[in-house]
Amino acid sequence: MPVDTLISTEAVECGRIDSHHHLWRYAPKQFPWMTEELAVLRRDFLVPDLVSVARESQISGTIVVQARHSIDETRGLLELAAGSQLVRGVVGWAPLANADVLPTLELLASHPRMKGVRHILHDEMDEAYMLGKDFNRGVSYLKDLNLVYDLLIFERHLPSAIEFVDRHPQQVFVLDHIGKPQIGNKSMEPWKSDIRKLAQRDNVYCKVSGMVTEADWKKWCADDLRPYFEIVLEAFGPGRLMFASDWPVVTLAAPYRSWVSFVESATARLSSDEKMRIWHGTATHVYRLNQESG
Predict the structure, then answer these.
(1) From CA 220, how far away is CA 205, in angstroms rounded?
(2) What is the pLDDT averaged over residues 147-175?
(3) What single string gives the DSSP state of each residue in the chain?
(4) May I ask the CATH architecture of the domain 3-286?
(5) According to a count of CB atoms within 10 Å of the terminal CB, is the N or C end of the chain lower?
(6) For 70-98, what is the mean pLDDT?
(7) In the chain, where are the structural domains located?
């Protein structure tokens, strides 16, 4: 019996979707970004580990997201998802800037659990990497393949991200981690102004995630995070927000359950329908989780 069949019936009925987490077998050479400061992440995080945290937070489905620029990793995540009742979609990586990327994308998109593509833009030395001709050519293929593009950036990249999105008005984009504002410094600008501009593009959605790791890892409290949540709620509305954990990275600053509790508290005043959209509906729609074909 697959380990993730242990998810409770209550979780299935609740239908919460975690739209962003990672899984990996740790190997130092494959994860050079895991510095000494991130030592807690230097171990395997596999489906049984995910099941244990998902079950206690009533998560019934998830999207696993790439952590390396590796086709092999993407293929491995697709194999894992194919045998899992919990992992319902993959946002993988492909060499979008390569001139011959289309056959690779077509092959990946043929997998029923392949839902999107991501590149770790904020680690590129070239601050304008996302505006490059070759990269944009690769992104232009995604729409016809029904693949979402996940945007992983720091707040300083938001102006470039707006220009990037405007080049692809029919492409569905998802902003990871609310654009990584400087929560630790309690800084709101220019993030607030830029996030509102980006949200004016109705083909852009936003993951409510990554906030505790942009705050003070040891001293953060809900009051530090709530103003940022309120801004993205106002800008995108519940219909374009989706819950995400960024597990296991979130554990640098908080247990999985603590992050879920914050989102429960932050959304408590919303209507049942609005909460449903954030916890389930938006991710299900954007990543086509009810569709069995890629």
Answers:
(1) 26
(2) 98
(3) --GGGGS-HHHHHHTEEEEEE--B---GGG-TT--GGGGGG-S-B-HHHHHHHHHHTTEEEEEEE--SS-HHHHHHHHHHHHT-SSEEEEEE---TTSTTHHHHHHHHHTSTTEEEEEE-GGG-SSTTGGG-HHHHHHHTTTGGGT-EEEE---GGGHHHHHHHHHT-TTS-EEEGGGG---GGGT--TTHHHHHHHHHTSTTEEEEE---GGGS-TTT--HHHHHHHHHHHHHHH-GGGEEE---BTGGGGTS-HHHHHHHHHHHTTTS-HHHHHIIIIIHHHHHTTTT-S--
(4) Alpha-Beta Barrel (3.20)
(5) N
(6) 97
(7) 3-286
Sign of the CA dihedral 220, 222, 227, 232? positive
Please state the length of the chain: 294
Task: Band the pLDDT of 188: cuts 50, 70, 90.
Answer: very high
β-pairing verdict for 173-175 and 241-243: unpaired
